[in-house]
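Hi all, a correction to my earlier message: I attached the wrong file for Luciferase family protein. Here's the right sequence:
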Amino acid sequence: MSNNEPAKPNQLRNANRLKLGVFGTNGNGAAFTHHPDRFRCSWDANVRLARTADRLGLEAFVSAARWKAFGGDGHYSGDLMETFSWAGGIAAVTERISVISTLHVTLVHPVFAAKAAASVDLISGGRAGLNLVCGWYPAEMDLFGVQLKQHADRYALADEWVDIFNRLWTGTESFDFDGDYFRIRGGINQPRPVQPRPFFMNAGGSPRGQAFAGQNCDVAFIIPQNPDPAFVKTQVDQYRSMAREKYGREIQVWMSAYVVQRDTAAEAQDYAHAYIVEQGDDPAVEHLIRENIPNAQAMPDGAIAHMSYAFKAGYGGYPLVGTAEDIAGRIEALSTAGVDGILMTWLDYEDGLARLAQGVLPRLEAAGLRAAADKA
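and the right structure:
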């Protein structure tokens, strides 16, 4: 098997000052809520959304990875399509957008990942990417019979994982590898991929996690400690300087955000309150926090309440709530603070993308942050 066609330009390398992506459509969305508008995953919906995002010139279509639900057996948070199978399908129905498979490096072996990612790369003509997660949910580790490692050990394993993956991706001769976490004999990856290397994303927030992203990844996500763009700029500058000074690398710094766009700010706030507060899935979020944040009981009530609200709103993302003008203005302020990209979720993805296209994207183009879709 070979790919004789030239690689298509990966949109994550385009000239847009502010890049945009869509997250989590391979499952039932990012919001923990019982609101009737919550996204229900289907393949047909994924095809429609991917093609819309592609047509609008968005840069990335990113999956979430989940092996066990947060709210118990049968809970909607566990209904996620496997990310490489999903990516191959999305790649086949799109033309330009980068297709990103999220995976847990503690659970998915690099030999398998290299072949799966190369397959997506061939299907897409060079648009495959990986969102690397080091694994933190004990129930998922138990499912695979894998012991949850200490924080530093997870990133040490991830360093080995990336080393092996890179050698498999670029090398043409078999190799042996003896590490603390992996032992490989005759490692080789065929068929050969299209890209020199797929885009790596990572959202490590600790100093060790940031070091991993700075050394190995192309896109690093920050979780702002304060929503004020001045504070965001401090985080972005520190992250980018660390990668440059310690590892000699230039990285993109992104954020995730949940988007609630309406014709008036009051309508947007009311809608957010309805799905987050009035119909939020409190038991699932309480379980998530209790089981996965070791020091949760010691945190002040206000911090727990803020964390719970953010998870119910959309996986803890940054709030982009208001009119098209409000949202475009906040995005422009984040871009001025140095943010390179925003990965977006909505309660209703199809309605959200339609509103984005009609009201926000033209404003971002007018501000010089993005080229029109046909020039992206």
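Sorry for the mix-up. The chain has one domain: 11-375.
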